[in-house]
Amino acid sequence: MNDSATAAHLSAKDFTSDQEIRWCPGCGDYAIVKSVRKALAEIGTPTENVVFVSGIGCAARFPYYMATYGFHTIHGRAPAIATGVKLANPELDVWVVGGDGDMLSIGGNHTLHVLRRNVDLNILLFNNEIYGLTKGQYSPTSREGTLSPSTPMGSLDHPVMATSLALGAGARFVARSVDTDQKHMPKVLTRAHDHKGASFVEIFQNCIVYNDGAFSAFGEKKTAPDTQLHVEHGQPLIFGASGNKGIRVNRDILALEVVTVGENGITLDDVLVHDETNRTLAGWLARMEAPEFPVAIGVLYCDPTESYEAAVMRQIEEAKEKKPAKGLNSLLQSGHTWTVE
Amino acid sequence: MKSRPLRDFESARHFFRLSMESCVSSDGNAAVKLAEVEREEIDAVVVRFAGDSGDGIQLTGGRFAETTAIAGQDLETFPDFPAEIRAPIGTTYGVSAFQINFGSGAILTSGDAPDVLVALNPAALIVNIEEIKPGGLIIVDSGSFSAKNLQKAGYKANPLEDGSLEKYRIFPIDISRLTLEAVSGAEVSKRDGLRCKNMWTLGLISWMYDRGLTRTTDWLDGKFGKSIPNVAKANIAALKAGHAFGETAEMPDGVRGFTIQPAEFEPGVYCTVTGTEATSWGLVTGAQLAGLKITMCSYPITPASGVLHVLARLKSYDVTTFQAEDEIAAVCAAIGASYAGALGVTSSSGPGIALKTEAIGLAIATELPLIIVNTQRAGPSTGMPTKTEQSDLYLSVYGRNADAPLVVLAAHSSADSFDVAIEAVRLATKYMTPVVILSDTYIANAAEPWRVPDADHFEPFKVEFRTHSTGFQPFMRDSETLARPWVKPGTRGLEHRIGGLERAYGSGNVSYDGENHQRMTDVRFRKIERIADDIPLQAMESGADSGQLVVLGWGSTYGPISSAVGHLRADGKTVSHIHLRYINPMPKNLGELLARFDKVLVPEMNMGQLTTMVRDRFMIEAQGLHKVTGKPFRISEIEDGIRASLEK
Hints:
The complex is a heterodimer of chains A (about 350) and B (about 650). Chain A has about 350 residues and is of the alpha/beta class. Chain A has helices at about 5, 30-45, 80-90, 100-105, 110-115, 160-170, 185-195, 215-220, 225, 280-285, 310-320, 330; strands at about 50-55, 70, 95-100, 120-125, 175-180, 200-205, 230, 240, 245-250, 255-260, 295-300, 335-340.
């Protein structure tokens, strides 16, 4: 699909539709749509070969703002609809956009299955830990005790961790980014696109109206160096404003811990090196939570295998080779027939 | 008075063994006829096979139906099985049955009361006996009438001995034992040997109705010959033994070989089809006529899974099948496929269709073609999964949030499902709309002969995707059909967005304007209404087009209504029959046609859904005739209904 001749001419503007954006001023979604357009221009797939599919929610308005093909569907079902799109035309570049309520609550089942099947979709989960469009109820990623119109005394249920869920479902590409990080996000999106199979990207997105500051523990630009760990395949898991903090395995308790290189005899050799094909490590990284740990950002896991729709097409080709269709009459007479003279 | 077991089969067994010894040919296999037995010629007969759900009853019936078709007789079958896969052996709820009505005349139903019952255990006898014609022949496996099995079935005394079956002709045979003897050379376990009981029975019934065995032996060889040759050998031995038993054993009074003349069929190539097969083949044919690939997305549910199974084997016909994680995902994936330019198809039964309703609304709103096959079963909720009903008419026509019209078609028989499926594809693609195909458990499973049409004579209705961008708007409309253009993503210059939020007339941009919503709602209705101009006028199925009484039917009641109306007309009654294929929109002349009759009687396997629909649409006084026992109407029940209506 990548058409390099066209790629050279594409800009973020080419991916911008004529529709006025209707998100709240200051919403993290503005930053995300900007990053996505930028990434798409860099990726260079012609606009007509790109499809955005979304469910319901603030995030799900996304397709209207892209000058590509787009389908704003029903609550939670975007992964299923996108699967159908991909089965009918595997050549299309299909992006699925949804929020935490859409993809982890009402559509949680489809998220699970689209990931385990490994359908070649780029799935962007805008996680703002709240229901925005229905005016502020707590969501499946809201932390315990979240005060909301439906939980005036605080929410009682335990939140789901999106990337852990994705890994548990068998996703082969799991990444994270933050809405405010305009430099980082396009790179992650490009990686997601390049990965053949289901790519799951959780984007921490601030809801300025109903959950402002939900990610302030690690999402602020000023404190980011100390609170975020940007993982890079083959690179040591180092973070911190001074670049001297690292993650290592504490073998006594079989868990990760934060260490400072140069203190207590710790050297760079003690720090784990990121291997994005290591599912166990990805699981650990996914579960690192602030403030005890930095929050892992970047490609936590990437270990490609044949994508679902490619396998489906392979079977169809095999069937055509082994038992070529010989026309409708042959089909209709494929049972036990007899002739009446 | 004592019931009359026609024979004690201990002695018959000896006789049989002796006969076999004397008639086994040198290769030790083929039994040779001892003497030509005179056969009685009959016009038609209804036979029901019944046994445990693990007894292979459905297979037996299916094989017998095939040889019946090959013999040139007309037939209808009625497989009737429990929802449990293998219920505890010997229990009444584990009884599986297969009924076949066949004959030399036109056969339109699977028959009212069976003339012959084959019961492989006491439970099968107790469950089915009430429905057998008085004087009917009951062949039982006396070997299975142990105290334990009798108790499991709920018999206090052995019915073969206590005289309770006196109004029938009982023919006890120790089929279990005879089967085990027959398979003794095949090196199978006792358990596997006993499982050949169904083949022994099939052999006997094949003899009774003058069937050759080659077709079945070939089939057994093909199925088991390579993988488990001893099982193939055992089954074939049992089949042949049952047949030889018929030829050689001394039969009791009234049990003899019969012949049935072939029915008169128009010349052509025939096969037997179930509704499941015909629907699947119709969809493939429709898609090819439209120039589309099929993406069929479904979730397993009884009794609808068959369509998924059939289509999964037709990959080389440009069919992609997808077993989704749930009913909702299935319909959504089908919608996604249609959006991407394939023919999206989903199938289910009532509970699954209920889950799909929101997504069907999306397909209506975004005006995408979509085929929804609903193989109806008894409900509400889980209901009776393997039993037939027609109670999803409201669900199909009205069952969505808001004003959401779509096309509803109903197949009236297994073979008719083929034509209905093609028509569904034509309308869905021409009018950019979801189309519901209503089938039911009976149609899905029942087999009947079908004259295979010549596909070269079908008229194509090739879809033209919009490719030029000049003047393009996603919700612009064809002035005749009111359909919006279908654009495949990947088409340069036509990038656009659609969705479930109300769309502005023409541009399709999100619009909350009230006037626009009125206009879009109106046009969605008009589009479906206009389809009435593109479908045939309603024809009479039989009888005059005006008069005292018309029987209005839809779906699988076709057989019993046709037969009942035929009988009563032959009897001099003034009664006509109209059978609906187009439920929504209805044919333009239907209201006027119905109004020409003094009375309209609507037999339905529900509590009156079409009845209220035609009352509503045409302000006529339709009377309902309802049955929801999980079994099709008997002809006699419809006859009684018609008579009562005429007398009222």
